[in-house]
């Protein structure tokens, strides 16, 4: 039996090897009040099986339905089969897009309070194509925050990480301040020597941004209070401040596969 779909005739095969695999998703309850990716992706075994299923037509009728259905226009019937040997003077290995990060102090409340998010989640929030279309909103109540803190998740780390993460924090602060009226942003992190010498004078001139050379200790929500309380140390003194939204600066984690490739090619990961 032939049936019509979008003005194209489709011939159903009775001997399709397997049904299409369903994309795994987290439950509805797990999606509430966070920016966790809904679709978790295929496990390796399922992905291989699905790829084999997609390539299992075993015969071509010349209907060009695969070409018509492929929105990226990735199918080109005129390309002949060939093997290519490519030579390069240099190979660049990047960190990829795994969005994984090293664990940080659990006392900072990430995972316990929906209004404590990572810099990766905040970057997604600031994007015009993100879940809030670029608006800075608290995942807890959907309200515009008046006070935002960006705090260092790895205050004891080496200078390179402190420099890059604080620069990221400043850049995210600028985007948030430009897009949110009456917002105050406080950046709490140890400041490495290179940042103090190269960028601190310019960062201190940004309207709405305050920079504290301190280390965050813990984050809590006291009973019957809406705001979060950040406990931090500055110049050896213990201090507290209240915020409506807190962003944790993370340290990216490189996958073991990339580390292995880097060693094999004797090439640094950038």
Description:
Helix content is 26%, strand content 19%. By secondary structure, it is an alpha/beta fold. It folds into two domains: 3-69, no CATH class; 106-249, FAD/NAD(P)-binding domain (3-Layer(bba) Sandwich). The strands form three sheets. Strands 3-10-4-5-6 form a five-stranded parallel sheet. Strand 8 (228-234) and strand 9 form a beta hairpin. The radius of gyration is 25 Å and the shape is globular.
List keywords for this structure.
270 residues, 2 domains, 19% strand, disordered N terminus
TL;DR of this structure?
The protein has eight helices and ten strands. It is α/β, with parallel strands linked by helices. The radius of gyration is 25 Å and the shape is globular.
Write down how many β-strands occur, each being a DSSP E stretch of 2 or more residues.
10
Helix percentage: 25-40%
Poorly predicted runs are 1-5
**The CATH C-level class name of the largest domain:** Alpha Beta
Give the biggest beta sheet. Answer: 5 strands, parallel
Shape: globular
CATH homologous superfamily descriptor of the largest domain: FAD/NAD(P)-binding domain
What class would the helix/strand composition place it in? alpha/beta
Straight-line distance between termini:
55 Å
Fill in the CATH topology of the largest domain.
FAD/NAD(P)-binding domain
Please state roughly what percent of the residues sit in beta strands, choosing from under 5%, 5-15%, 15-25%, 25-35%, 35-45% or over 45%.
Answer: 15-25%
Number of helices, counting only DSSP H or I runs of 4 residues or more: 8
Q: How many structural units, i.e. domains? A: 2
Q: What's the CATH architecture of the largest domain?
A: 3-Layer(bba) Sandwich
How large is the radius of gyration?
25 Å
H and E order: EEHHHEHEHEHHEEEEEH
């Amino acid at each position: 039996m032939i049936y019509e779909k979008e003005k194209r005739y489709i011939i159903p095969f009775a001997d399709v090897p397997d049904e299409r695999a369903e994309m795994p998703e987290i439950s509805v309850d797990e999606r509430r009040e966070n920016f966790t990716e809904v679709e978790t992706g295929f496990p390796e075994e399922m992905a291989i099986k699905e790829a084999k299923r997609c390539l299992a037509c075993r015969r071509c009728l010349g209907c060009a339905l695969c070409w018509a259905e492929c929105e990226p226009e990735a199918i080109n019937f005129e390309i002949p089969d060939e093997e290519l040997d490519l030579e390069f003077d240099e190979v660049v290995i990047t960190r990829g897009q795994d969005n994984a990060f090293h664990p940080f102090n659990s006392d900072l409340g990430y995972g316990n309070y929906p209004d404590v998010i990572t810099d990766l989640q905040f970057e997604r929030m600031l994007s015009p194509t993100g879940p809030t279309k670029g608006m800075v909103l608290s995942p807890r109540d959907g309200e515009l925050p008046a006070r935002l803190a960006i705090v260092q998740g790895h205050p004891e780390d080496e200078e390179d990480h402190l420099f890059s993460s604080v620069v990221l924090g400043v850049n995210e602060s600028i985007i948030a301040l430009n897009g949110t009226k009456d917002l105050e942003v406080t950046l709490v992190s140890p400041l490495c020597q290179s940042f103090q010498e190269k960028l601190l004078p310019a960062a201190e001139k940004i309207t709405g941004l305050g920079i504290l050379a301190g280390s965050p200790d813990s984050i809590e929500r006291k009973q019957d209070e809406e705001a979060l309380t950040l406990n931090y140390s500055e110049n050896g003194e213990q201090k507290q401040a209240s915020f409506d939204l807190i962003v944790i600066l993370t340290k990216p984690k490189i996958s073991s596969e990339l580390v292995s490739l880097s060693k094999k090619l004797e090439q640094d990961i950038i």
